[in-house]
Write a structure and sequence with these properties.
By secondary structure, this protein is of the alpha/beta class. The chain is about 25% helix and about 25% strand. The protein has nine helices and 25 strands. The strands form eight sheets. It has a five-stranded parallel beta sheet. The protein has a five-stranded parallel beta sheet with strand order 11-18-12-13-14. Strands 6-7-8 form a three-stranded antiparallel beta sheet, with no helix packed on it. It is globular, with a radius of gyration of 22 Å. The model has no long low-confidence stretch (mean pLDDT about 95).
Length: about 400
């Protein structure tokens, strides 16, 4: 029997760990149940941290962890999925193609930044969506030091006033001063079509976020969107033109395109609809998890978000359940009632909330300490020691906060 996992992000990593854990508990050998993880590199990109400086350091190797738990790593990108023949076509880095059959498949392909067809966006905007994008932005910021001082050089526009946009914007003043000199006067502006900043965070935390933006010197343009970009900056939907050498696009996510190859229903974000065991509805043998799946978290109407917190726990349940089906034992119903957010606010600290109602529990430096622990410890892979790695993937305890 073979379980194939597509993707080495947080959901894919925990799917592999959890499936291997259940296999070990049941006393089944890797020869009886092969677990294969397919990804371009055996590396976890620590995506929640890509707004930080030195993004090239924000990865974690997975090869030793996978070896420790007897998960086969298959290098390459899945080009096509055939759910009728139960096989995937893989393209290697050198362009070679090979087919891999599966008895169960877990789609853990993550998400991509949504880039609408706005004039100039493709040519003039940066992002912190992926590792290469974040590295390109970091290099660009350092190159600014070679330019003459000007308002355009020192102005950064962040398109998107959600979680990612706020973290990128509030980190930017200190990043620019580190590059341009402590006497530099960077100007950072968040643009969002919503009438309020952080629309998904709700009214409770908003005054604290607004105060933090003022403290670090981040301006906002709300109720407006980016209409076009060129080498001189951005023009907004209200006609305002902002001169800027650096525009960061952080406005929305979509599930990775591979999900479209699964003949099943998807939501407006491209996520596959799944049942409470994370099976893709109406497609035998396929599970979806993380940002590739829309899953109910509880019985009162809350659904998973495109976040590391949800991806890790969903991955653990998907891996457990796909392996359980192959081994003929009971699956576990995915649930994630505990939900927290920890929003980095740059030099203003951070904001920690609990629950879907976003009740504020910590602010400032106290919350920043928690954010640092999340970003440097909690979200990293377990150590490459078999017992510890397997123990880390109990679905009932992953992302328990």
């Amino acid at each position: 029997m073979r379980l194939v996992i597509i993707g080495a992000g947080f959901a894919g990593m925990y799917a592999a760990l959890s499936a291997a854990r259940l296999r070990d508990i049941q006393g089944v050998s890797p020869e009886e149940l092969e677990i294969a993880l397919v990804a371009p590199e055996p590396t976890l990109v620590v995506r929640p941290r890509l707004y930080e400086p030195k993004p090239e350091t924000l990865t974690a190797p997975l090869q030793d962890v996978l070896k420790a738990i007897d998960v086969v790593y298959v290098q390459g990108s899945v080009e096509t999925v055939d759910t009728k023949s139960r096989s995937v076509q893989i393209v290697t880095a050198k362009g070679a193609k090979k087919s891999l059959s599966y008895d169960r498949l877990i789609v853990a392909t993550g998400s991509r930044l949504f880039r609408p067809n706005i004039p100039g966006l493709a040519d003039h905007a940066f992002s912190v969506d992926g590792l290469n994008d974040a590295i390109a932005l970091d290099r660009h910021l350092h190159q600014l030091a070679s330019l003459p001082i000007s308002e355009m050089r020192d102005t950064v526009v962040v398109a998107g006033g959600g979680f990612t946009g706020i973290e990128a914007a509030t980190e930017m003043p200190s990043r620019l001063r580190a590059i341009l000199g402590k006497d530099a006067k960077p100007r950072v502006i968040i643009v969002d079509r919503s009438e309020a900043i952080a629309p998904d965070m709700g009214a409770g935390p908003r005054p604290l976020i607004e105060a933090a933006l003022r403290d670090v010197g981040v301006e906002t343009r709300l109720g407006a969107s980016v209409a076009s970009l060129d080498k001189s900056g951005v023009t907004l939907s209200n006609g305002e033109h902002i001169e800027s050498a650096t525009v960061i696009w952080a406005a929305g996510m979509r599930a990775a395109p591979l999900t479209a190859q699964i003949p099943a229903e998807r939501d407006s974000f491209g996520r596959l609809l799944v049942d409470r065991d994370l099976r893709v509805l109406s497609v035998d043998g396929v599970f979806a998890t993380g940002d590739a799946a829309r899953a109910a978290c509880d019985d009162v109407g809350n659904y998973s978000l495109m976040s590391c917190q949800h991806a890790t726990r969903m991955g653990a349940f998907a891996g457990n359940n796909a392996a359980a089906e192959l081994l003929g034992i009971a699956t576990r119903r995915y649930h994630q009632k505990a939900y927290v957010t920890c929003l980095d606010l740059g030099e203003a600290g951070a904001l920690f909330t609990r629950g879907w109602e976003r009740k504020v529990e910590m602010v400032g430096e106290q919350a920043k300490k928690t954010k640092r622990e999340i970003n440097t410890v909690w979200i990293y892979p377990p150590r490459a020691e078999r017992a510890a790695a397997l123990a880390s993937a109990d679905p009932e305890h992953v992302s328990e906060v």
